[in-house]
Specification:
The structure is a single chain. By secondary structure, this protein is α+β, with helices and mostly antiparallel strands. The protein has two domains: 199 residues, no CATH class; 49 residues. The chain is 46% helix and 14% strand. A six-stranded mixed beta sheet has the order 2-1-3-4-5-6. β4, α6 and β5 form a beta-alpha-beta unit. α1 runs antiparallel to α2 and α2 crosses α4. 31% of the residues are buried.
């Protein structure tokens, strides 16, 4: 029986042996996450991000002075290459076409982390860090900003053929690196009652930062990718990062509200 899933923000669930994480300080882990994101995202912007990260890594990981024009077999032989043979052979030509002159590998790694956390919800039956089927708890680990996962959680629980007594919702500190007050443990019957909780505060009156922050929040609540929001609103990366921090702080300054 599968016990771990990555659930996309359109409700599609992807069974996995363990959670998919990206870590901007761990290149191998982030490359693996980039390949997984490319395969499973619903956004072309995220697929392009994954291609750019691989291209930047290919250039930086060059051993013999060759750049992105390397053949796929050469890439697979590069030290520390965790990418699957299928992915490399399928996408080498696309990656080779990307100019890496202005690409910042570290920044792209951070983007992979952010997009993965924004689009996917991590779910574990039996515990967050272990798979104990005798523990009848279903954990949801949220690492996104500004998106209310309640309906997607509800639909997943209602369709799941799992022994569940309690629902636990936490902030995924392991992936975000930030602490949050968001923690809830409810009997499944309470959770499945008419929406007893709101995972995102309903009132915007305390959301600081002006019109732009509210527009960004509207895009986040709709489920847009971070790259799409940047392009659609035509804002600079620093301002966008600051706005995400404002929204995250606003979400985390209070416990989950009752309806």
């Amino acid at each position: 029986m599968n016990t771990a899933w990555m659930i996309r923000n359109d409700g599609k669930a992807f069974p996995c042996p363990q959670f998919i994480y990206a870590n901007a300080l761990n290149m191998e882990e982030t490359l693996l996450a980039a390949e997984w994101l490319y395969t499973n995202t619903q956004y072309e912007e995220s697929r392009q991000l994954a291609r750019e990260m691989v291209a930047a890594w290919m250039a930086s990981a060059s051993v013999d002075g060759a750049a992105v024009s390397d053949a796929s077999d050469s890439l697979l032989q590069k030290p520390g290459c965790p990418l699957s043979q299928e992915f490399v052979k399928a996408h080498t030509e696309e990656v080779k076409a990307i100019s890496t002159e202005n690409l910042d590998l570290n920044a792209l790694c951070s983007e992979i982390v952010a997009e993965l956390n924004q689009e996917f919800l991590r779910v574990q039956h039996g515990g967050v860090h272990h798979m104990d089927s005798s523990t009848k708890e279903l954990f949801f680990c949220i690492s996104s900003v500004g998106f209310d996962w309640y309906k997607i959680m509800y639909d997943f629980i209602a369709a799941a053929d799992l022994p569940i007594e309690f629902i636990v919702i936490i902030r995924g500190e392991e992936s975000t690196g930030a602490k949050s007050r968001l923690y809830l443990r409810l009997p499944i019957e309470t959770f499945l009652a008419e929406q007893p909780i709101q995972l995102v505060p309903p009132s915007l009156c305390k959301l600081k930062g002006g019109l732009m922050v509210r527009e960004i929040f509207a895009h986040l609540s709709y489920g847009s990718s971070l790259r799409h929001i940047l392009g659609d609103l035509m804002i600079d990366a620093k301002g966008f990062t600051n706005a995400l921090t404002v929204i995250s702080d606003w979400e985390n300054q209070r416990s989950i509200e009752s309806k």
